[in-house]
Amino acid sequence: MDSDRLYSIGELARRTGLTVKTIRFYSDRGIVLPVDRTSAGYRRYGPDAVARLALVRTLRELGVGLGAIRHVMDRQLTLGAVAAEHVTALDVRIGVLRLRRAVLTATARREREPTPEEMERMHQLAKLSEAERRRLIDDFLATVFEGLGAPSAHAAPRRSMTPELPDDPTDEQAEAWVELAELSLDPVFRSSMRGFVEDHVSELPRGTPTPPRPDFVAIARDLVGTAVASGITPDSPKADPVVATLTARWAHALHRPDDAELRQWLLRRLEAANDPRRDRYFQLLSLINGWPSPERTAPVIDWSMTALRARASA
Asked: Helix or strand or coil: residue 255?
C-alpha cells in the first residue's frame, strides 16, 4: 500500500517538482526528516513527506522564512498565525512599494530633469518611517512657528498644517506626500512661510489677550472670492465697494484708520503672501489627509493686489 511505502529522495523530487538538492537542504534543517535509511546510508522518507514538502514549497513561495516553516511543521505555530504575521509584513512592504512608485512617478512627471541629488532625496523621503515623517514635518513647522508667541497660540495652526499619511495610502496620497515633503525641506519655501506668519503675528495687539482673528488672506478670500467668481475686474467701478469693504474690514480687525497707509500695508502683505507654493502645500495636505480640496488663494490675492494698486495710482 502507498501508506506503507518509503520514498527515496529522488522519488520525492519527481513527485514534488523540487530538486534533490532542495529536499536534502530541507531535510538537513529538520523540516522534512527521513524515517529510515538503507544499508548504504541513503535516506528514506514516509508517505507524509510529499504533503509536507508541498506545504513547504507553498509557504516559501509566499515568502515565509524557514524558521517559521519549521515551527509550523513542529506544530509550534498554526498556519493561521503564520498567515496573519505575513499579512502584516506584506502590508508594510506594499506601503514601501507604493512610496517608491510615487518617487518614480513624480520623477517621470517633472518638467525639468531631476539632478542625481534630488533623485536620491526623493528616494530617501519615500523610505521614511512614520516616526521619521513626523520628525520631518515637526522640524518644518518649528521653523515656521517657533518663537512667535506662546506655543498654545499656534497649536491649532500647526495641527491644521500637519499631514497624516494613512497606513494604506493610495498612489495619489503617496505621490502627494513625496512632493509635500520636498516642499517642506525647501529653505526658500520655509522662509516664505515664516515671513507670512511673522507678518500676521506682528500686527496682533500687544498686552491683553485678544480673540483669534482671521489673517488678511482669509479676509480677502471671504470678501473678494465672489467678485472673482462673478467676473468683476479689479480695476472697474464695480470693484469699488468690494475694495472698500475689504479695507474697512481689515481696519476694524487692526484697530487702525482705513487710510492710504493701511492700504499700502495691506498691499505689501498680499505681495508677501503671493507664493503659489503656499496653495500647493495646502492642496497636497488635503489630498494626504483626505480633506476637501481647499480653494486656491492665488486668484483672490492677484485680484486684491491689482485692485489696490489701481486705486493707489488713481
From this structure: coil
pTM, to two decimals: 0.60
Q: Residue 7: phi, psi to the nearest 5?
A: -115, 140
Instruction: Give the Cβ contact number of residue 291 at 10 Å.
Output: 11
Taking only the tens place, the pLDDT of each residue in 131-182 is 888 999 999 999 998 888 777 777 888 888 999 988 777 878 888 888 898 8
**Cβ-based burial of 77 (10 A; exposed 0-12, middle 13-18, buried ≥19):** middle
CB contact at 8 A, 232 and 300: no
Kindly report the CATH number that applies to the domain delimited by 2-77: 1.10.1660.10
Q: Do residues 51 and 31 touch, judged by C-beta distance below 8 A?
A: no
Residues ≥6 apart with Cβ < 8 Å to 279: 294, 296, 297, 298
For the chain, where do the domains classified as CATH 1.10.1660.10 start and end? Answer: 2-77
Contact yes or no for 238/155 (Cβ under 8 A): no
User: What is 82-141 written as a DSSP string?
Assistant: HHHHHHHHHHHHHHHHHHHHHHHHHHHH-SSPPPHHHHHHHHHHHH--HHHHHHHHHHHH
